[in-house]
Design goal:
Helix content: 25-40%
Number of strands: 12
Order of helices and strands: HEEEEHHEHHHEHEHHEEHHHHHHEHEHE
Number of helices: 17
Strand order of the largest sheet: 1-2-3-5-4-6-7-10-11-12
Strand content: 5-15%
Structural class: alpha/beta
Oligomer: single chain
Distance between the termini: 16 Å
């Protein structure tokens, strides 16, 4: 996938996608998990849900995205607010679709582009040109998951409050900074509770996986064909666990480690982003150890004295870290990082601030997107772990050993992300075991910063023997498909279009 367009997870208590998408991809639960409603069978669902007819119509503009034209059509799927009460109150989930262009149609191919919190309705039309071969035999379908965008999207803060929160230090060094950090986190949660109301307890990954199976039924498919990216791999794994007999052809690209809890996931991302930074530094002829030391020094100086930017705003340590993270998602963006770092060393924070704004979905007028807000709402319902400030401080040295540049940033995030959250989290790690499911293709990139390659192997083990089939690309950036490897693209296409399962462990260099 075009790495710069993908979402992984992470958060950060400060404003936008704070912790640089660096990785809040949290879990789902087995149907029997405490506090988790059992998954109703297809026959238990009321006909008002399973027999609904979708009203496909021309799409409208969503947020800052223009209305997609051409063959794209949109509709609203009615789903239960609470899956333990499928006959109760419903909410609307927004879908987008373009019908297959060829005559030998296989069915629908659902896409989730990551996050959690990414809008499939706005992303699908932009991504479609890269997958024209798939479009010949599949209806391309995506959606805004519950709590996202046009599907009861949650906005916990307005633009003014979001910008004000950017002044909060995400790596606090003093008692006063700690108080401000955790006060901001608690205030964010209160804003989400006020904005979302009862929905706040019903936006988990499990809820969305069940929405997907209803979507499958209403679209008329016997089995689910699915392409999940980044967090979307976790969602796909949870679906496979809940509905193994309904798994069709599933591709999971940029695989989240389902065995990692919140802290383990943050450690994985610290390792992944540091690895990507090392690769970047080596590509520019620098020693990774010395280069990282110099970048860490720059961040320390910004902590003491933020840099001015041409916009009149200031580049803080937190914003600079976010700005460094963004170009690591895509190797073609590395020259932007080189230029931004050079400018910052000369005393101009404009370029790094622009990168941070891009990541945080801030436009020139000061308007922010809501992806990071939905991301936090979903992951804090998934994640049961709530590390205390004291526990986090004890772990900081380990995080900083893993990554001298990103360690403290991601370490503090484990405490601030869901601090004082209004609803309890549901599980430590997602349940993705899927015995009896059809083979699922797992695509791992050895240079992936946000979902490190080790997660592919872990997902294969968790899915169960013979289910997870691993495909490796020795590349850079977040994700592999449509990222520059003809070998990866051909292998994935053969699996999706012809049902050809590759040899487990195949490597594309």
């Amino acid at each position: 996938m075009a790495a710069g367009l993908l979402l992984a997870g992470c958060g950060g208590s400060s404003g936008g996608d704070g912790k640089g998408d660096a990785g809040r991809a949290s879990g789902s639960a087995p149907p029997s998990a405490p506090g988790s409603p059992t998954a109703p069978s297809a026959t238990a669902l009321p006909a008002s849900l399973t027999s609904q007819r979708l009203d496909w119509h021309r799409c409208e503009a969503t947020g800052d995205s223009p209305a997609p034209g051409g063959t794209w059509r949109c509709a609203t799927l009615k789903v239960p607010l609470d899956w333990s009460d499928p006959g109760g109150k419903t909410i609307g989930v927004s879908l987008i679709r373009s019908r297959a262009t060829g005559g030998d149609r296989i069915g629908s191919l659902l896409f989730n582009f990551g996050g959690p919190g990414g809008s499939g309705v706005s992303t699908m039309p932009y991504f479609a040109p890269a997958i024209s071969e798939l479009r010949e035999r599949y209806d391309l379908v995506s959606w805004d998951p519950r709590g996202v965008g046009a599907s009861e999207g949650v906005r916990c803060r307005d633009d003014r409050a979001t910008q004000a929160a950017e002044t909060v230090d995400a790596t606090p060094d003093t008692p006063a900074e700690e108080q401000a950090y955790f006060r901001d986190a608690a205030d964010f949660g209160k804003g989400c509770q006020k904005a979302a109301g009862p929905l706040l307890a019903h936006v988990s990954t499990t809820d969305t996986a069940r929405d997907m199976d209803l979507m499958r039924q209403v679209l008329g498919d016997d089995r689910l064909h699915y392409f999940g990216i980044s967090y979307g791999t976790e969602l796909g794994g949870v679906y496979a666990h809940l509905f193994p007999e309904r798994v069709g052809r599933l591709v999971l690209d940029a695989v989240v480690d389902p065995a990692a809890d919140m802290v383990g996931h943050a450690e994985n991302q610290a390792r992944g982003f540091q690895r990507a930074l090392d690769d970047y530094l080596e590509s520019t002829g620098q020693d990774p150890v010395q280069g990282s030391r110099e970048i860490a020094g720059l961040l320390r100086r910004l902590d003491a004295e933020p840099l001015p930017a041409s916009s009149g705003r200031k580049l803080t340590q937190t914003l600079a870290t976010t700005g460094i993270i963004l170009p690591l998602y895509s190797e073609p963006s590395w020259p932007r990082l080189t230029s931004a770092l050079k400018s910052a060393r000369r005393g101009d924070g404009s370029e790094l601030l622009a990168l941070a704004d891009e990541y945080n979905e801030r436009d020139a007028s000061g308007h922010y997107g809501t992806t990071s807000q939905s991301q936090r709402v979903i992951s804090c319902l998934d994640d049961r772990q709530r590390p205390t400030p004291a526990e986090t401080k004890r772990r900081l040295a380990r995080f900083e050993r893993i990554s001298p540049v990103f360690g403290a940033y991601l370490g503090w995030d484990t405490a601030g992300w869901c601090h004082d959250w209004p609803v309890p989290g549901q599980y430590d790690t997602p349940e993705v075991s899927a015995p009896g499911a059809a083979p699922i293709l797992l695509v791992g990139n050895t240079g992936d910063p946000a979902t490190p390659y080790e997660g592919t192997r872990s997902m294969a083990g968790e899915l169960g023997r013979g289910v997870g089939i691993q495909l490796t690309w020795k590349g850079e950036g977040h994700g592999a498909y449509a990222g520059g490897s003809a070998c990866v693209d051909a292998t994935v296409n053969a699996y999706l279009l012809k049902g050809k399962v590759p040899e487990d462990g195949k490597v594309c260099s």
